[in-house]
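[step 3/7] fold_predict: job queued, chain A
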Amino acid sequence: MSDAAPPHREATSARPGPAPGSSTPSGPAMLASLGPLLLEWLPRQRWFAGKGRPLTGFTLVAATELLPLPRAGGAPGLLHVLFRARQEGVTEDCYQLLLGVRDVLPPHLAPALVGRPDDGPLRGRTVYEGLTDPRLAALLLERLRVPGRLGPLRFHREPDASIPPGLTPRLLDAEQSNSSAVYGETYILKLFRRVVPGTNPDLELPRALARTGCSRVPAPAAWFEAGPLAPGAEPMTLGVLQPYLPGSADGWQLALGALAERADFTASARALGHATAEVHLALAEALPTTVLRRPQLEALAAVMTRRLDAAAEAVPQLRPYRTALAAAYDELTAPGGERGSWCAQRIHGDLHLGQALRTPGDGRWSLIDFEGEPARPLDERRRPQPVARDIAGMLRSFDYAAAVGQAPGPGWADAARAAYCEGYAAAHHDDPREDPRLLRAHETDKAVYEVLYEARHRPDWLPVPMSAIRRLAGAASGTA
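[step 4/7] structure written:
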């Protein structure tokens, strides 16, 4: 990743951790302190990706003191830790922790307790979630204000970014796969919990959009990364600081509010479609695009078919519709239609109503969270894809909002879906409805994924995607 920040300056107010694999107390000895605690604490965290599989151990990747650990007294220390979690039958995942260390934990920080080590260099101390401590969260912002290196960690800031000192932090509790802290209603820091080598799209894409002048996505002001931690490896993106949009509401909240009041949502959906198109056009300008021809379309259809087959094996309710749904994928390579190829480009990758914010006053939509689906490999998330995937994700989100908000019939979702596509077509040279095969295939693929997810995690919600399955299967067979 290119470094647009000012030249590095070595940070001097904290001691760096040792190189990975060191036998110092911050290496294997540190696991003697943290390992037993993490075996119990880690599976309870919302962002832990390996639920349901036993943890068998940990490998320390790097440990860095952002604030020296306390020798005595009440001053806290801040320890940054990267470690790999070993589980039965799965590839080791690398996780990032910011751990506060104190002799005694104040009562207001009691819910953040990780544990009290019985062994190792942290024996007798209290270890807790560092982001919950305003003093430690403020220190992290200060590191981002002053670019430089600290052990394996590298802190970067955009040259034109103005980050005031002394902004009061508060931790948000709405994140699922990551953690976020807001600083003084001015900036928001997203801390990635599961990290991999390579630039995270939630840093890469907003920076690329900022270079085009696109204002629909908050531009990163600063970020930090680790490494490279091995020869030939890429650095790992650890966190991104972006402008915070105070008072904004996400599209999910707004849609449910409109449903509760039986209010019209089409104007909002149309404006959101327009904003999505602007972002897609800017991404196509900023980053390379490609063309999906018959071989690529055949490969795409084959992947979707395999996902359908696997889901149908796991969810019996899906099996009667398998043939009709597969026909939507076959249409991608069928002769006829308006075209035989489509463009592929960088996209959001996980677009839904919760990823769109509308600011008060001007009612302007912004898109956030460009990480993509965290469960997918990074190289897959960074691969050019049809914009139809983003559009399909938003269309499915309207269906979910209608179900959760108890819309009286299909009219609300149908109107919102149509308005969103109208807004998109008004700003983009390609109307996704002119040749609907690609959009229908991606919406079908998304609904199949939802069926599998709901069957495993929220069985009571299974009727929501199953209603879409029946509609899409009917459309494919010509009976809708």
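[step 5/7] annotate
The chain is about 35% helix and 20% strand.
The first helix runs from residue 28 to 41.
exit 0
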